[in-house]
């Protein structure tokens, strides 16, 4: 089944919010074997929305929209969809009553406005998806071999409605279209071009399963994907290609799928009964943020200290003033001293540090923007690493924080194996 996803809202085009709905729907639909071939984003404009829907219904069997189902005049999706499908709308008393009840359950003195009735306008002959996560109902309308689905825009509502309403509807109407399984292999210390060189013949030969390589902040991701009649069959198809990729990349692979390098570091620390801390300059607390994204991080993470200025480096982690004067703050000796100082401050077994230049200004020929020194201190001594990261300020900080955690993993593996 060919699918197109249309996300509606000028705020998406203005970059005010991140379009997570397309990502979520694509991931979930592909699991069902539905082929998402197109994604379109269109603003709150009646003419352009109609054009987008007409094109989508020409080239896809199933069109799913998100957004534009609210009570205001700017919420156009359902009305334009009915126009394109040449289907009249009617006022559904049951839907309106459900909206009233939802508001009454959640507000002490709800104001139920006249324009709430817009949300109760339903295309004739459509299946209505009640919304227990919000007020706007969803709908699905089939006509002349095409299916047009409208889902609400807020991600929490859309995800609830997909799981509870749309997914069962699709399985009843069309059944499973097979299963698409993907395996994501993450490499942290080998560049995209080198990985591509090692895997290029596999890319050229691909049919089913397929292979693709993506550069991510701090790592490179190799995705292998297979489509089969069932989940078990798809995963079985993946195994030979996965083993070949692993063989060619040898020990470079660190994590798989949704697991991050922080998960790996956490497991190693817990296994060794070790505690870790950090001292961060250019990363501004991101190492601590990434580590505490993992549930249970309090078992091994003691804290991170922000030492952004030279004065704080001296006062908090006792970097000698003479070292800062002779080497400058952005140097390997200072990164080493920061890691040692953090370890002493927190009483940690292992400590990480970062000091560098995230930009956008201040770079020179000898000290370019993106230059970051990372320190790792622990029971096996103190080591430093030098990197020059590409990207804007935010990306440089993220790359540096991810790589610092990776260096912590490598430090433990090297000495505890």
TrEMBL record:
InterPro entries: CinA (IPR050101), CinA-like_C (IPR036653), CinA_C (IPR008136), CinA_KH (IPR041424), Competence-induced_CinA (IPR008135), MoaB/Mog-like_dom_sf (IPR036425), MoaB/Mog_dom (IPR001453). It holds the Pfam family CinA_KH. Residues 4-172 form the MoaB/Mog domain. It comes from the Bacteria. Belongs to the CinA family. HAMAP family: CinA_B. This is Putative competence-damage inducible protein.
């Amino acid at each position: 089944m060919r699918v197109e996803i249309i996300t509606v809202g000028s705020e998406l085009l203005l970059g005010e919010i991140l379009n997570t709905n397309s990502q979520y729907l694509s991931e979930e639909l592909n699991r069902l074997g539905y082929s998402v071939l197109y994604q379109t984003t269109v603003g709150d404009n009646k003419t352009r929305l109609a054009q987008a829907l007409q094109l989508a219904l020409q080239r896809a069997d199933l069109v799913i929209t998100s957004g534009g189902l609210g009570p205001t005049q700017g919420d156009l999706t359902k009305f334009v969809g009915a126009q394109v499908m040449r289907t009249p709308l009617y006022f559904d008393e049951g839907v309106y009553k459900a909206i009233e009840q939802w508001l009454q359950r959640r507000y002490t003195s709800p104001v139920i406005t006249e324009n709430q009735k817009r949300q109760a306008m339903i295309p004739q002959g459509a299946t209505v998806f009640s919304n227990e996560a919000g007020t706007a109902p969803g709908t699905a309308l089939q006509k002349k071999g095409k299916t047009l689905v409208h889902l609400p825009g807020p991600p929490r509502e859309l995800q609830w409605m997909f799981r509870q309403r749309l997914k069962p509807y699709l399985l009843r109407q069309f059944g499973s279209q097979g299963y698409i399984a993907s395996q994501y292999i993450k490499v942290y210390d080998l560049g995209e071009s080198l990985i591509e060189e090692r895997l290029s013949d596999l890319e050229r030969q691909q049919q089913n399963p397929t292979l693709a390589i993506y550069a991510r902040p701090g790592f490179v991701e190799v995705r292998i994907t297979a489509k089969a009649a069932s989940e078990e069959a798809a995963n079985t198809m993946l195994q030979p290609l996965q083993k070949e990729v692993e063989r060619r990349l040898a020990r470079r692979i660190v994590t798989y799928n949704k697991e991050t390098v922080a998960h790996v570091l956490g497991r190693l620390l817990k296994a060794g009964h070790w505690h870790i801390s950090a001292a961060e300059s250019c990363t501004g607390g991101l190492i601590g943020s990434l580590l505490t994204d993992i549930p249970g991080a309090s078992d091994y993470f003691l804290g991170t200290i922000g030492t952004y200025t030279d004065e704080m480096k001296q006062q908090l982690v006792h970097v000698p003033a003479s070292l800062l004067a002779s080497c400058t703050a952005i140097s390997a000796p200072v990164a080493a001293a920061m890691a040692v100082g953090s370890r002493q401050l927190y009483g940690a077994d292992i400590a990480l540090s970062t000091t560098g230049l995230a930009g956008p200004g201040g770079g020179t020929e000898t000290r370019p923007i993106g230059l970051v020194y990372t320190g790792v201190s622990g029971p096996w001594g103190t080591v430093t690493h030098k990197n020059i990261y590409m990207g804007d300020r935010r990306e440089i900080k993220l790359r540096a924080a991810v790589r610092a955690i990776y260096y912590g993993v490598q430090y433990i593996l090297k000495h505890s194996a």
